[in-house]
Each structure stands twice: as structure tokens, then as C-alpha cells.
């Protein structure tokens, strides 16, 4: 604009010069400078000539600058703009670009599922970027370099090829910058820090989904991880939960999952499309909080089931603990969010996830070892020894749920949830899981009301 305005100013100066009249024939050249241009005789004094010369040189200089900018600078500016503007210029605008934020056990399997679909479906760019929290392996190599060389996450999912179109990237900002579909799948305790690093770094049109089972408790109250992501990054976030033990899906054993969405069914369908395979069946329901709370709270029940296994109390006791746990899951979810639907508890994210976790999950396994050791070895110690870098979610979730219960005066209403935390911190012995959980809550929790 500045260039155009200057150009107009130059034009006006030019017009003014054209207003000089031709010198009348026979006019004496001694009075007027003989300034002949063809048959024009301009009756100008030296002062006028100086002014005109000044204006002309000004005009020519400005013209030169404008031409210089257009010829030499504009292409450079265009190039710079192209580099910043998403999506990159080498792709059709309708193709979605997917980045996975996280590369643990489930994060790696999610990358494998997604990578098989982005190759197959035209609406997605082939490449799937996977942010990796960089680690140095015992061999001295960087985990990202090994993943990119071998196409395998040798630490968190050994023996499984992820797909050649998965690119491991240790730089979080670089990994997300071009994506318009972000999949969050890290242990929940790292998400606050990760979101903090991503503020202002994601595309304006980005959609997100969280596969993370967990919650945060803030001064204002409980905050689901999808809400944390939505609020911190200013984007819409769906969730995907289900009976999904990652190692089983990695070897393509049949499983189901549930996508929870808030409003936009089309977005939910796009996520369903991105994850679905013949052995991984995904269904969408309009209940983000219900789906996410199922995935989050079942980990607390799994710890209780692990205590029962460690104490060798048998299947009936374990089934009883699962039933009481499911009742508390439903009541707690509905007390926090009245919108939570009963039907959600019958989806894969509900009762199916509860069953698989209480039978074969990591939370159950480590809790069993905790009980076998009479609570003498801490969860942290057992987790490090038994999971080699993978993380439990149930112990910290039990603590977070306990904070909500004590803050709201609900401890007596949720004896199983409260007891799991008290055993985990050594306040009660593992055997308390049955004695305390079987206590009848003071009020009916059947419909989630107090
Ligand atoms: N593994 C499963 O079977 C499974 C299935 C469904 C859902 N989930 C859920 O998915 C989420 C992620 O689980 P996962 O199994 O992929 O992870 P994981 O348990 O394998 O966790 C390890 C991951 O945490 C990363 N990490 C370690 N320190 C970190 C730090 N300071 N900052 C950021 N990252 C760090 C590691 O690099 C690694 O990628 C959890 O909420 C879990 O409950 C897991
Ligand atoms: O191994 P866990 O206990 O973390 O559970 C894994 C998944 O959440 C099961 O769906």
C-alpha cells in the first residue's frame, strides 16, 4: 500500500509538469529560458527548472525503488510466506496431515493403525509424524534414530513394524506444526507440560483426539485431559477409549473402541475412519465426558482387582470388586457431569474396558505384585522394575479421585475408590480392599444422585 500511495504522489507531480504551456512562437529567448521539447517552448526561469529537475529526479528515484521492490523482493516474500503457511504447497488442500503426540506402548500401536489407513485413504497425507520423548538407549543410540532406521519402537513396542510412513520426530513443535489432526497419547501426568509447550504452535484449523486415560485435579476441581487440551490450545478435542490392551492390537487381534465427541458428528466420523481396520472396530457416541471418565476410572478398579489377585481371593471376589467398581464409575461420572449417558457404560469404553483391564492390564499386574509383597514395596519401585519405562495411570488417578471425593465430602459414597488410594499410600493393608469396598454407601448411587 505504501508503494502504491507513493506512486500516486509521483503521478500528481507528473501531471503538474504537463500543465506548463508551450512557448508562444516568436517569444524572446532572453526573457525565457529556451527550453524546447519538439515544438514546445517552455517559458521557464532557472528557479522553475531547478524545481522541475528536483521533482523529476525524485520521481525517477521513487520509480526505481518501486521497480526494484517488485522485481527482486516480491518473489522472496512469496517464498517466505509459503514456508509459514500451512498446509505445505506440495499437497492438495483437502488432504489431512496427522501427528501423534506420544510414542509409548499404545502411542506406537496407534501410529501403526493410523499409518496403515493414511496409506489407504486418499483424504490423508501418507506420512504420519510421531513425536518421541527422546531417550538414549543402552546401545548409546537415540530412540528416534533407531525408530527411523528400523521402523520399530524397540523400547516400547519391540518386534512390531510401525509402517514406513511413520516418521519419529524428537522436536515437539516441529512435529505438530503442519498437522491438522493431532492424536494425543502420552501418560496423563505429562500432558500439562506438553500443552504448555504447544500454546500458539498448532495450526488454527487443527482438530484433536485424546487416547489418554487420566485426569488432572485443579483448584477449581477435576479437569479431564481432553478439556485440558481444548482449553490450553483453543481447539476441539474428541476422545478414543476402549478395551484396548495395546500389545494385542499390535498383533491384530480383534478389538473394539469408542470415540466420544461433543457436537460435530462429521469430525467424529473422520476419526473413526482414521482408526478403523477390519480387526479394530470403532463406534462414535456423543458423550465425551462419559467415554473419557470410563477410560480413566477403570484404572482405579484395575488396581483393586490386582490386589484381589495378589491376595489369591478368587474369581467371585474379583467379579464383585468389578461390579462395585462399575457402580462407582457410573455414579462418580454422573455426579461430575449430569450429561453422561447410561448407554456409554455398555460401549467398549465402559464394561468391556473394565473387564480387559482387570484381567490383563499393567495396572492389575503391578497391583498384584504390590499385594503379594504385603504393600512393603512401593508402586514406583515396582513400576520401574516391571514395566521398564511404561507408566501406570491407576495409582495417580486414585489419588486424583480421592482429592475430589474429600473436597466434595463424598468419601463415604465411594468406598472402593477411597480404599484403593489408602492402600496405595500404605495407610491401609491390601486386604482392606474387600473389607472396605463392600461397605454399603450411605446413599443410593444407582442413578448417580446423592
Ligand atoms: N498401553 C496400553 O495398552 C494402553 C491402551 C489404551 C490406552 N492407554 C493409555 O494411553 C496413554 C499412553 O500410554 P502408553 O502405553 O502409550 O505409554 P507408556 O505407558 O508406554 O508410557 C511411556 C511413554 O511416556 C514417555 N515419557 C516418559 N517420560 C516422559 C516425559 N517426561 N514427558 C513426556 N513423555 C514422557 C515415554 O517416552 C514413553 O513414550 C495412557 O493414558 C494409557 O492409559 C494405554
Ligand atoms: O495396561 P493398563 O492397565 O494401562 O490398561 C491398558 C488399557 O487401558 C486397556 O484398555
TrEMBL record:
Repeat keyword on record: no
InterPro entries per record: 6-PGluconate_DH-like_C_sf, 6PGD_dom2, G3P_DH_NAD-dep, G3P_DH_NAD-dep_C, G3P_DH_NAD-dep_euk, G3P_DH_NAD-dep_N, NAD(P)-bd_dom_sf
An annotated GO cellular component: cytosol
Residues annotated as domain Glycerol-3-phosphate dehydrogenase NAD-dependent C-terminal: 287-435
Transmembrane segments: 51-74
GO annotation (BP), single: carbohydrate metabolic process
Pfam families reported for this sequence: NAD_Gly3P_dh_C (PF07479), NAD_Gly3P_dh_N (PF01210)
Enzyme nomenclature, EC number: 1.1.1.8
Glycerol-3-phosphate dehydrogenase NAD-dependent N-terminal domain mapped to chain residues: 98-261
Enzyme class: oxidoreductase
Gene Ontology molecular function, alphabetical: glycerol-3-phosphate dehydrogenase (NAD+) activity; NAD binding; protein homodimerization activity
Keyword annotations from UniProtKB, A to Z: Membrane, NAD, Oxidoreductase, Transmembrane, Transmembrane helix
Catalytic activity reported: sn-glycerol 3-phosphate + NAD(+) = dihydroxyacetone phosphate + NADH + H(+)
Assigned protein family: Belongs to the NAD-dependent glycerol-3-phosphate dehydrogenase family.
Name of this chain's protein: Glycerol-3-phosphate dehydrogenase [NAD(+)]
UniProt source species: Parasponia andersonii
Amino acid at each position: 500500500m505504501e508503494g502504491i500511495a507513493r506512486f500516486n504522489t509521483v503521478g500528481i507531480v507528473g501531471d503538474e509538469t504537463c500543465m506548463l504551456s508551450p512557448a508562444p512562437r516568436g517569444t524572446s529567448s532572453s526573457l525565457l529560458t529556451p527550453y524546447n521539447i519538439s515544438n514546445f517552448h517552455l517559458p521557464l526561469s532557472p528557479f522553475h527548472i531547478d524545481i522541475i529537475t528536483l521533482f523529476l529526479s525524485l520521481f525517477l528515484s521513487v520509480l526505481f525503488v518501486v521497480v526494484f521492490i517488485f522485481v527482486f523482493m516480491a518473489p522472496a516474500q512469496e517464498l517466505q510466506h509459503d514456508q509459514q503457511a500451512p498446509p505445505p504447497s506440495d499437497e492438495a488442500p483437502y488432504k489431512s496431515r496427522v501427528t501423534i503426540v506420544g510414542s509409548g506402548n499404545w502411542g506406537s500401536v496407534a501410529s501403526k493403525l493410523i499409518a496403515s489407513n493414511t496409506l489407504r485413504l486418499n483424504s490423508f497425507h501418507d506420512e504420519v509424524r510421531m513425536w518421541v520423548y527422546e531417550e538414549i538407549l543402552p546401545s548409546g543410540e537415540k530412540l528416534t534414530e533407531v525408530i527411523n532406521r528400523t521402523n520399530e519402537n524397540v523400547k516400547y513396542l519391540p518386534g512390531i513394524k510401525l509402517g514406513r510412513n511413520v516418521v519419529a520426530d524428537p522436536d515437539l513443535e516441529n512435529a505438530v506444526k503442519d498437522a491438522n489432526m493431532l492424536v494425543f497419547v502420552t501418560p496423563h501426568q505429562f500432558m500439562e507440560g506438553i500443552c504448555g509447550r504447544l500454546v500458539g504452535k498448532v495450526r488454527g484449523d487443527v482438530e484433536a483426539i485424546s487416547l489418554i486415560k487420566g485426569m488432572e485435579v485443579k483448584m477449581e476441581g477435576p479437569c479431564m485431559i481432553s478439556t485440558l487440551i481444548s482449553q490450553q490450545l483453543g481447539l476441539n478435542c474428541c476422545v478414543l477409549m476402549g478395551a484396548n490392551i495395546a500389545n494385542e492390537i499390535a498383533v491384530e487381534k480383534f478389538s473394539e473402541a469408542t470415540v466420544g465427541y461433543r457436537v460435530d458428528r462429521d469430525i467424529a466420523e473422520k476419526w473413526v475412519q482414521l482408526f478403523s481396520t477390519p480387526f479394530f472396530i470403532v463406534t462414535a457416541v456423543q458423550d465425551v465426558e462419559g467415554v473419557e471418565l470410563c477410560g480413566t476410572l477403570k484404572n482405579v478398579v484395575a488396581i483393586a482387582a490386582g490386589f484381589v489377585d495378589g491376595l489369591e481371593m478368587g474369581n467371585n471376589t474379583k467379579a464383585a470388586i468389578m461390579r462395585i467398581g462399575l457402580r462407582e464409575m457410573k455414579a462418580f461420572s454422573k455426579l461430575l457431569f449430569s450429561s453422561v449417558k447410561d448407554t456409554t457404560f455398555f460401549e467398549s469404553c465402559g464394561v468391556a474396558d473394565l473387564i480387559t483391564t482387570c484381567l490383563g492390564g499393567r495396572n492389575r499386574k503391578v497391583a498384584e505384585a504390590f499385594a503379594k509383597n504385603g504393600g512393603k514395596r512401593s508402586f514406583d519401585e515396582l513400576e520401574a522394575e516391571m514395566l521398564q519405562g511404561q507408566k501406570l495411570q491407576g495409582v495417580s488417578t486414585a489419588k486424583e479421585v480421592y482429592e475430589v471425593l474429600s473436597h466434595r465430602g463424598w468419601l463415604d459414597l465411594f468406598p472402593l475408590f477411597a480404599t484403593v488410594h489408602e492402600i496405595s499410600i500404605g495407610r491401609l493393608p491390601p486386604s482392606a480392599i474387600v473389607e472396605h469396598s463392600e461397605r454399603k454407601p450411605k446413599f443410593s448411587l444407582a442413578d448417580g444422585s446423592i
